[in-house]
């Protein structure tokens, strides 16, 4: 929520658009309450039901629903600035403290990748028209191959989302430009 809003604020979007991104970011994974599979689509429907009683126009609800419904890399993609900011914020959120169970023997590939990231910085440079994700990855925990096996599709989704914002997306891992 905060990161999606920060992206649009840094790029000079109006307060309404920033607030819609904040709401979409806050609600984006609500569909997991129904099922992990198709959680984006379920989330869009649930969000609409929850937002009906709020002081939002139909247009604003649809914008939020669209961002939530399009944030999963298997079925979605950025269609406007709100969905683009949500996608970039969500897909670049890789970090060690996302791993709840610290028992490495119990890690799946997602846990291993998240745990291996010792530092992640998302930078927005409006003048250079560049959004950069800079990662430090402990390769004794996760190889670069494993990272890209899980995250390449997500990073490509970020690249396309950045284009919606008239920006480029760059990924740097352990000091080397990757994308």
Overview of this protein structure:
This protein is α+β, with helices and mostly antiparallel strands and 179 residues long. The chain contains 7 helices and 4 strands; from the N terminus they run ααααααββαββ. A 4-stranded mixed sheet has the order 1-2-3-4. α3 runs antiparallel to α4. The longest helix is centred in the C-terminal third of the chain and has 21 residues.
Give the mean pLDDT.
94
Number of separate strands:
4
Rounded Rg:
16 Å
How is the largest sheet built, in terms of strand order? Answer: 1-2-3-4
Helix content: 40-55%
CA distance, first residue to last residue: 25 Å
Class inferred from helices and paired strands: alpha+beta
Which segments are poorly predicted (pLDDT under 50) over 5 or more consecutive residues?
none
Largest sheet: 4 strands, mixed
Shape: globular
Task: Estimate what percentage of residues fall within beta strands.
Answer: 5-15%
Number of helical elements:
7
N-to-C series of helices and strands: HHHHHHEEHEE
Detail the topology: elements first, then pairings:
Elements: H1 2-10, H2 15-27, H3 39-51, H4 58-69, H5 81-91, H6 109-116, E1 117-125, E2 130-137, H7 144-164, E3 168-173, E4 176-177
Parallel strand pairs: 2-3
Antiparallel strand pairs: 1-2, 3-4
Helix pairs in contact: 1-2, 1-5, 2-4, 2-5, 3-4, 4-5, 5-7
């Amino acid at each position: 929520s905060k990161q999606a809003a920060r992206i649009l604020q840094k790029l000079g979007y109006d307060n309404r658009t920033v607030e819609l991104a904040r709401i979409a970011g806050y609600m984006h994974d609500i569909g997991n309450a129904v099922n992990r599979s198709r959680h984006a689509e379920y989330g869009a429907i649930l969000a609409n039901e929850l937002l009906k009683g709020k002081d939002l126009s139909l247009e604003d609800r649809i914008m939020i629903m669209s961002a939530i419904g399009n944030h999963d890399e298997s079925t979605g993609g950025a269609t406007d600035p709100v969905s683009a900011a949500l996608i970039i914020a969500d897909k670049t959120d890789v970090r060690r403290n996302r791993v709840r169970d610290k028992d490495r023997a119990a890690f799946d590939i997602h846990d291993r990748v998240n745990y291996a990231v010792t530092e992640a910085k998302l930078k927005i440079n409006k003048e250079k028209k560049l959004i950069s994700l800079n990662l430090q990855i402990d390769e004794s925990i996760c190889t670069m191959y494993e990272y890209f096996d899980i995250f390449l599709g997500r990073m490509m989704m970020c690249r396309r989302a950045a284009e919606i914002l008239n920006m480029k997306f760059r990924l740097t891992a352990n000091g080397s430009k990757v994308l």
